[in-house]
Amino acid sequence: MPSERSTYDLVIAANRLPVDRVTADDGTVEIRRSPGGLVTAMESVMRDHDGAWVGWAGETGDAPEPFDDGGIHLHPVGLSAEDVAFYYEGFSNDTLWPIYHDVIVPASFHRDWWQAYQRVNQRFAEAVAALAAPGATVWVHDYQLQLVPAMLRRLRPDVRIGWFDHIPFPPVELFAQLPWRSQLLEGLLGADFLGFQRQADARNFVRACRQLLQARTKRDLVHVEGSSRTVRAAAIPISVDFKGLERLAKQPEVMARSAQIRESLGNPKVLMLGVDRLDYTKGIRHRLKAYEELLVEGRFSPPDVTLVQVATPSRERVGAYRTLRGEIEQTVGRINGEYSRIGAPAVHYLHHSYPREEMAALFQAADVMLVTPLRDGMNLVAKEYVTCRHDLGGALVLSEFTGAWHELHQAFACNPHDIEGLKQAMVRAVNTPAKDRQRIMQALRRRVSDHDVQRWAARYLAALRSAPDRPRLEQVA
Ligand code: ADP
Ligand code: F6P
Questions:
Q1: CATH number of the structural domain 8-238+454-466
Q2: Considering the entire predicted model, what is its pTM?
Q3: 8-238+454-466 and 242-450 agree in CATH topology
Q4: Which among 2, 77, 214, 278 could bridge 311 via Cys, Cβ 3.0 to 4.6 Å?
Q5: Does 36 contact ligand 1 (Cβ within 6 A)?
Q6: First and final CA of the chain: distance in angstroms?
Q7: Whose C-alpha lies nearest to ligand 2, atom 3?
């Protein structure tokens, strides 16, 4: 086992480590890649930086010893069964997640969940404080760790602290429902710089500080009451490792696998694809409804048209996720019962995680990529899809309620609540002449390649270094 250095100049803290440890009944330990966009993005950034990553290794109980994986130093934080139930499944994913995603399902408020959230955030702050070198840079991530910036500042006033919000930041009218709204804002104001996916998210945060803390604010700056500190809140949208993923997608084995996927689906004229964590924010039900109506109306029919829906297992013990899984699987069953033929299912439903190569092959195989969230901070799947389409094939149907839509305007836009509109976008994506689709794909790819995850990280770190002032141009990649 590699020995842990005592301190690091860059420490990142995120709820999850990039890999989960999974112990089987016979005691063997398997290391699996963790789900979600945060890990996809930060893993590629950390490969280029020498630093430590503090996070949960995905199992309950004592933290395993620190370990290295893929050239990244990983420092696990332990979560007990109660911490997982109250801090992770409860406060993070049944209180904050719904409030931060437009209350698509109702949020639950429990004081013992809040206690656990404070306790676990303190544990993360202490782990980071012990690892950070004097004057180090600490980059905290996402809604699970909003108290860490202030807790860490109390422990280590010498370090520079940034926080990045991977999900939306809600309008003050929704945020104000939280009984612990002031504590959350004060927790975040412990940072030097706060990054958000969209300007609207940064503005929502500044407005919440003004209205709920009576903080003095000026444009993107919030003055911290009782101190001389000012915190900047700005939009720096996250992205994908364009070069790395494109290289992967160009590998002959990946391209051959893509052809093989189409072949095993019976070489449909149109292959539609959805790839999402099985989450109610992703609009999977709306997508299936639109697809089913197109089948009913005879505008689509298998085997000419088929849909592959990859629904990655997620947060399976949280009630709303269990309910959603039941609904989706019932709908898929109904559609297939009605419209499949032997050897030609209308929907191929896959409830698994796959290696990156397989995902890249799937993206290349798909004629139409359906990204239809009701609300999504960014949606990296949309950016991954266009990155993999080096052949300029394919078409992206993209919800206006994703952060990605603010950058990828040329996509076939949709409002997933408007089922007729969604159907039209799907049909347009299929019927637009290939030359026009190629032109669109070229524009989408240019945007992602010019604004890749390396540039995102460089911009973020430059903003953090210069906070609360704006970074000078030469500091930004
Ligand atoms: P979120 O962070 O909400 O899950 P994103 O679209 O931003 O949503 O990121 C999801 C990430 O997880 C992407 O990198 C995507 O490729 C990956 N992913 C999603 N489903 C799977 C799966 N079944 N197997 C492997 N990777 C997946
Ligand atoms: O970015 C959204 C996000 O919630 C990340 O914070 C998280 O790591 C990922 O999606 C997957 O969710 P979870 O960690 O709850 O499985």
A1: 3.40.50.2000
A2: 0.96
A3: yes
A4: 278
A5: yes
A6: 36
A7: 36
